Amino acid sequence: MLEPLLTPEEKALRDEVRAFVWDDVPRQLILDMDADRVCYPREFLERAAARNLLGLRFPGAYGGRGLPWTSDIVALEEVGVLGTSLACLYSLPSIVGEAFSIFASEAQKAKYLRPTLEGRLTCAEALTEPRGGSDFFGTTTAARRDGDAYILQGQKRFVVGAEGADYFLVYARTDPTAPGHAALSAFVVERGPGVEVQHVYGLMGTRGGGTGRIYFRDARVPAENLVGRENGGGDIFWRMMIPERMTSAAGALGMARVALEIAARYSDRRKAFGQKIRAFQGVSFKVADSIAALDAARGLVYLAARAIDVGDEPGRVRRLVSEAKKVATETAWQVINHAMQIMGGIGYTNVYPVERLLRDARLIMIWTGTNEVMDLLIQHEYYRELLAPRPVGRDVEADAPQAERMEEKVYE
Fold it and tell me: Checking CA distances to 291, which of 37, 188, 317, 339 falls within 20 to 30 Å?
């Protein structure tokens, strides 16, 4: 952890979440989830709620604690040590809760947000469709108004938590003629007639989180379950990408940290050629690289959280959040791979959890927007800021001996 950056309250929260992870998450649950013997660990969420650890950022009136993002990532890193499935399920009240907190009516907050943070309801977010993942605004699931309700038709897939969720936040096209960003609306869709959930995936990792496909067949959704305004789903989606990506980034830190700790301890015990293997540069330098990469990633995630908390310029927030997600998830992949390399063949077995962490880490570079999409956002927001008019500063481009040779500066 970045101890110098943490307040006393954040250190206390870290210890509180560590106690939850230690006391309330049985080893057998993790083993059963990875073996697909448990498809949705509802009790895990209920235990987190009992400790008032869900939706930490939301006001106390709705069951949260009113904490900043910087505190939330402290908690998320600690839950991340459990692997991607439990970290994601823990994050869903924060992700779905963002839509309620910013866009929902008071009635919707009372009906859904508070019971979710109290562990009485469970949620999932339905984004991805079979025809596309990153092409979110190409959504084909449709909703048409019918009196005091909307009728939903379509399907979503790769919905984490689908099997156990009591309700879903669903994006559907409500204006068939408008461009994607102006054509979608967000709805709270409860389980019921016309809503079918199927478990159809054999996942490489991230198992036991209830990932499934949802079919909407003439599903009747009360008009009062529209979140925000009709055709305003684009605004909700962009806001939702903050918790989607920040929770992924923070959880990745936890996975990487424990993989490094396991490998480093192993290197201090394992002997070869008459000495501990940590004495060999091939091992110790991988540990050093992992430490530096993890600290750098953690600092970036904390910076992005701070930017959100202080209300920084939206484009810069979008860039920093994208950087945090990209760098943290790729760092986790690198650090866990180093851990496996340090441990050699035994790291490739289920004697240690490194192989499970490796399988889990592969997904986080894909979901909530692939890291290639993060690259697009990062460079776009950088150029936008770089090329915008700004206060006069030093023209470093002129600090060259022949900077005035304009005939040599040919651009076309």
Answer: 317
Tell me the pLDDT of the chain averaged across its residues: 95
CA–CA dist 159, 284 (Å, integer): 40
CATH topology of domain 3-121: Butyryl-Coa Dehydrogenase, subunit A; domain 1 (1.10.540)
Half-sphere exposure of 236 (CA within 13 A, CB side): 30
CA gyration radius for the chain? 23
pLDDT digits (tens, 9 = 90+) for 321-375: 999 999 999 999 999 999 999 999 999 999 999 999 999 999 999 998 899 999 9
Q: Which two tokens stand for residue 157?
A: 């897939």
**Are 236 and 67 contacting, i.e. CB atoms less than 8 angstroms apart?**
no
**Within its chain, how far is the Cα of 31 from the centroid?**
23
The three-state secondary structure class of 25 is: coil
| Coil, strand or helix at 152 | strand
Domain range 234-387, CATH class: mainly alpha
Instruction: Determine contact, residues 185/143, Cβ cutoff 8 Å.
Output: yes
Tokens of 354: 């490194």
Cα–Cα distance, 210 to 108 (Å, whole number): 25
251, 238 contact by CB (below 8 A): no
> Smallest Cα–Cα separation from 16: which of 59, 63, 69, 56?
56
CA distance 76 to 54: 10
The matching CATH number, chosen from 3.40.80.10, 2.40.110.10, 2.40.50.140, 3.30.2010.10, for 125-231 is 2.40.110.10
Q: Evaluate if residue 390 carries a pLDDT over 90.
A: no
Q: What is the dihedral of CA 122, 127, 131, 134, to 10 degrees?
A: -140
Segment 157-177 shows an average pLDDT of 94
Indicate the SS3 state at residue 148.
coil
Cα(341)–Cα(289) distance, integer angstroms: 13
pLDDT given for residue 179 in this prediction: 84
Q: Which helix (H) or strand (E) holds 241?
A: helix 233-269
Q: Would you mind telling me the total number of residues written for the chain in this entry?
A: 412
* Residues in Cβ contact with 409 at an 8 Å cutoff, skipping those fewer than 6 apart: none
Token pair, residue 24, equals 């309330």
Residue 120: CB atoms within 10 Å: 12
